[in-house]
Amino acid sequence: MEWADATAWWVATGVLVAVELTSGTFYLLMLAIGTGAGAVAAHLGVSFPAQLVAAALVGGAAVVAWHLQRQRQMARSPAAARSAMNLDTGAPVQVDSWDADGRARVHYRGSEWTARFAGPGAPEPGRHVIVSSEGSQLVLGRPAP
User: Fold this and answer.
1) Over 60: is that where the pLDDT of 132 sits?
2) Greater model confidence, 40 or 83
3) Which domain covers residue 62, as residue numbers?
4) Are residues 19 and 71 both part of a single domain?
5) How do residues 110-127 score in pLDDT, each as one tens digit?
6) Comparing 47 with 137, which gets the higher pLDDT?
7) Who contacts 82 (Cβ-Cβ below 8 Å, separation ≥6)?
8) Could you tell me if residue 99 is inside a domain?
């Protein structure tokens, strides 16, 4: 049994959507839009090389557009607003001692975390609150009085 070009494009589109659903990366949906464009081109009867060009152009443009949209969103929301989405913001931690480089190891959520102080003056042992996180490092500040 030989598949028509359009059928192969629609199968590829379905596979990309299914993989996106399991991985959660939105970029695969943009590529699926491109393979859908390839399928539409096949239905219109254009040659296979033209179908490939249509899929590449539409899929590539969709990926670039999505990437630029994400960059604009990140630029619009300052770091403080992004850290507000962090559920750990405001949680208290106890700092027993600070290293010479301004870092500490704190126990939080059942494990040890590296933390740094982000506040005025020198860091001192005691109670602090999580201001934000940078990767796997907690950024601490003094608690509000």
Assistant:
1) yes
2) 40
3) 5-76
4) yes
5) 889 999 998 788 888 999
6) 47
7) 74
8) yes
The DSSP-derived string for 106-128 is: EEETTEEEEEEE-SSS---SEEE
Look at residues 28, 58, 76 and tell me which one is the last residue of a structural domain: 76
Phi-psi region of 12 (alpha: psi -120 to 50; beta: other; left: phi over 0): alpha
Structural tokens at position 32: 């699926």
Percent with pLDDT over 90 in the chain:
52
pLDDT number for residue 1? 47
Is 60 within a domain? yes
Q: Kindly report the backbone phi and psi dihedral angles of residue 3, in degrees, each rounded to the nearest multiple of 5, phi listed first.
A: -85, 145
Q: Which residues pair with 2 in a beta bridge?
A: none
Q: Judge contact between 42 and 13, C-beta under 8 A.
A: no
Same domain flag for 9 and 52:
yes
Task: Assess whether 91 and 72 both reside in one domain.
Answer: no
Query: pLDDT tens digits for 77-88?
Result: 655 555 555 677
Give just the sign of the alpha carbon dihedral 49, 55, 58, 60. negative
Q: Is residue 81 part of a domain?
A: no
Alpha helices in the chain (DSSP H): 5-23, 27-43, 48-76, 79-84
Look up residue 41 and give its two tokens: 């081109």
